Amino acid sequence: MIVADRKPIEEIIEYIKDRDKVLIVGCNECVTVCEAGGKKEVGVLASALRMYFMNQGKEIKIDEVTLERQCDHEYLEEIRNIVDQYQAIVSLACGVGVQFMSEKYFKTQVYPGVNTCFMGVTEERGVWSERCQGCGQCILATTGGICPVSRCAKRLLNGPCGGSSKGMCEIGGEVPCAWQIIIDKLTALGRLDDYEKLAPLKDWSKERAGGPRKVVREDVRQ
Amino acid sequence: MPLKEKIEAGGFAVLAELEPPKGADFHSLLANADLVKGRVDAFMVPEMANSVVKASSLGGCAFLQNRGFETVLQVCCRDRNRLALQADILAAGAIGIKTVMVVQGDDITFGDHHQARAVNDVTLMQLLEAIAGLKNGKDMAGIELKGAPDFFVGSTFNAGAAGGALDLEIEELKKKKGLGAAFVVTTPVFDTDIFEKLLVKLKPVGVSVIPTVLLLKSAGMARYIDRNVKNIFIPSQLIESIQKAPDKPVECVSIAGKLISRFKEMGAPGVLVSTIGWEEKLPQVLDEARL
Predict the structure, then answer these.
(1) By the CB < 8 Å criterion, does A154 face chain B?
(2) How far is CA A107 from CA A88, A90, A95, B20, B245, in A?
(3) By the 8 A CB rule, do B2 and B71 touch?
């Protein structure tokens, strides 16, 4: 999933403080799972903002809605009839949803309500960690299914650097060394020979180095 | 007279572009510089123009400075992060490079290493700001330096912008000036009338605007550039004059020389002569311009 984290409320207050009518839009997908931008978080944020502005003696009408997704036209269309009533939207979707909303409702100011962080997993409730950077050329087949691009601090492709110590990365913060995990996994699979092979230079043009990316599937295109 | 003093005194500065070779043999770089020794105020050494791997600008500048030539270092945001940029700029200051020109850098896709990852950690404006900070004795983290470098700082200007794009370009020029840029080098200019008007329009900004004179090599090249390279326009009579000339290279040299003379006449602060591979013709171009 795409993992996001809540934005400090002060930042959101700063965005909307001069508006009279604001719509907060949640998303039922990834940001719901990582508890940053689902229906529950929309309600919490809306209440906190109402309380803040009430204490400031300022009247702002703050409404709430949560869509199934914000990265598809059909769900974004659900608010077409009400968008014009608001001077601004705070979207609690990931950056993808914020942008798609902003592109679709071109005359409406759309603010981000979360900080979009990475593609990752729920390690346990309240702990999410990165697993994929969408580099566009997956090498997991050769690294025992563990990704050095997203999990090694230096994105090294040919084994650990000199900073790996007792299975941990030199950057600290209890970050495991990705290459330690890769070697352990390859050992468990009896495929340590793969580790000896020199990885070719990575083609970063498939990642962001080649500019904004697009996947076009003519077979499913309408 | 050093480049900075010459421009500040209202003189006409002659800059020549010398690209370092793709290789470790710098003999040609020195030979080309020697051809116009004493006739050029400084050599501008590009940092891997068009994202094609060559020896670095810092290396080329150091090499030429060692042999008594003044140089302009290009610092490019594409390939270095803020650590590497600052490290190189400090080193440049230490070896006596007095002028730096900040460029964003062409995209990797234009070059010969398509699979490389661009850096672009800082933008052109941020790098200008960083250089102002270094001159002030602080690095980008605000930590004090042991010895601050002193540079005459420049950047780029798109002379081919028109309409709304030109307004934006002028706004950016003001920003660059605010961040310490004292001069800008433009994209190649062939229409001197349009440039003269531009120069008048830009005068209030207070930045020295140095046009690039690109030495054409053939009518075909001129036509290709005019049709395909954004922001460079070549008047058709100029292309025709190459077509009709009995000796085309001589005509190309003559065009470049006349452009330089015209820029001098109109009060431009200087020119950058870009010969892209025809550096041996630099003396003739300067002869033609009576420089």
Answers:
(1) no
(2) 10, 14, 18, 50, 57
(3) no
Which residues from A are below 8 Å from B109, CB to CB?
205, 210-211
Interface test with B, best of A139, A155, A157, A204 (most B CBs within 10 A): A204
Q: Rounded CA gap, A99 and B130, in Å? A: 31
The arithmetic mean of pLDDT across residues B53-63, rounded, is: 98
Determine which helix (DSSP H) or strand (DSSP E) holds B208, and give its type and residue range: strand B208-214
The residue among B111, B120, B115 whose CA lies nearest residue A201 is B115
Q: Which domains does chain A have, with CATH numbers?
A: 2-118 (3.40.50.2300), 133-208 (no CATH)
CATH of domain B3-215+268-281: 3.20.20.220
Contact B108 A202 (CB under 8 A): no
ipTM: 0.81
Distances (CA, A) of B34 to A67, B189, B277: 70, 26, 16
pLDDT on residue A211: 84
